[in-house]
Automatic annotation (TrEMBL):
This is DMT family transporter. InterPro entries: AA-Vitamin_Transporters, EamA_dom, EmrE-like. Residues 10-140, 154-287 form the EamA domain. Keywords: Cell membrane, Membrane, Transmembrane, Transmembrane helix. It is a multi-pass membrane protein. It comes from Acidovorax cavernicola. It is found in: Cell membrane. The chain crosses the membrane at residues 36-59, 71-94, 100-118, 125-141, 153-171, 183-202, 214-236, 243-264, 270-288. Pfam families: EamA. GO terms for cellular component: plasma membrane.
């Protein structure tokens, strides 16, 4: 398993914090506001932040005409389905633990990689996947009763996770020779259009001015999630093997659960603490260099 460069590690830490704390932030933001509209506004406000980053870093905006079909497909699998499905699930399911269903993604990623891309997973990688899967099960322990009455939203979250896993694999194998920031900008812009259309079709009778809490949640998402986190994630996903880039952010749902407990008053059970230990095992299986790598160093 490869070790992380200092830049990748710093981005990983910042990404984990931004995404982890965002789950209760989103829950607060959509509590009394249409979820698709919340998502659309957040993305539209995040697009200028990304654009400014491209200008400052002198990254080109231009995409060759031949690359657009693949870029649209990457946007659909990495962002369109994920953002539509998961924000609806966050609205319906309980607190920060909505994150846990979304972060079953590494399990899907491992299976998709093996089935579609002939990926060879080491024993250590499977240990990390297994630890994640068990941790997810434990974190869902006290949610099963609530989920029983809302299977459709559970399915939405799992569809989001599986589609995102496919997108991560496709991004890793993309033939588009463009900077990651360029891809991130156009995928984000396309997603803003898609979320706006969906909100118009299904929520236009609920449209209204957001309240103070919702505006705060929108600002957090615009700057930290769509202005930074997605670009950082795409950079990591393109530069690391899919299992490494996905398993390494498994601390995000842990942050979602415990920040939800602090901000939303949810009870943390013993299963949650055991799950934290399992997530640390999963992260260690990716971040710590193998013996062979250490020997070569």
């Amino acid at each position: 398993m490869p070790s992380f460069t200092p830049r990748q590690f710093v981005l990983l830490v910042l990404l984990t914090l931004a995404w982890g704390f965002n789950w209760p932030v989103m829950k607060l933001g959509v509590a009394d506001y249409p979820p698709l509209a919340f998502r659309a506004i957040s993305i539209w406000l995040g697009v200028p932040v990304l654009a400014l980053a491209l200008v400052v870093m002198k990254v080109p905006f231009r995409v060759p005409r031949a690359a657009w079909p693949e870029l649209v497909w990457l946007g659909a699998t990495n962002m369109f389905v994920w953002h539509a499905c998961i924000i609806l699930a966050v609205k319906a399911l309980s607190g920060g633990r909505a994150a846990i269903l979304g972060y079953t993604m590494p399990v899907f990623s491992a299976v998709i990689g093996a089935m579609l891309f002939s990926a060879v997973l080491t024993r250590r990688a499977w240990t990390g996947v297994g630890a994640c899967a068990i941790g997810v099960g434990l974190l869902l322990w006290h949610e099963l009763t609530d989920f029983a009455g809302r299977p459709g939203y559970v399915a939405l979250a799992l569809v989001a996770a599986a589609t995102w896993a496919l997108g991560t694999q496709l991004l890793r194998h993309t033939r588009i020779g463009l900077p990651t920031l360029t891809l991130s900008f156009w995928m984000t812009l396309m997603t803003a259009v898609v979320m706006t259309v969906l909100s118009f079709l299904f929520e236009r009778d609920q449209w209204r001015s957001p309240g103070a809490v919702t505006w705060g949640s929108i600002a957090y998402n615009a700057v930290l999630i769509f202005g930074f986190a997605h670009a950082a994630w795409f950079y990591l996903a393109r530069g690391l093997p899919p299992v490494a880039s996905t398993l390494s952010v498994m601390f995000i749902p842990v942050l979602g659960v415990f920040s939800g407990a602090v901000w939303l008053g949810e009870v943390v059970h013993w299963q949650d603490w055991v799950a934290v230990a399992l997530m640390m095992v999963a992260i260690a299986s990716v971040l710590l260099p193998s013996r062979s790598s250490s020997a070569k160093a």
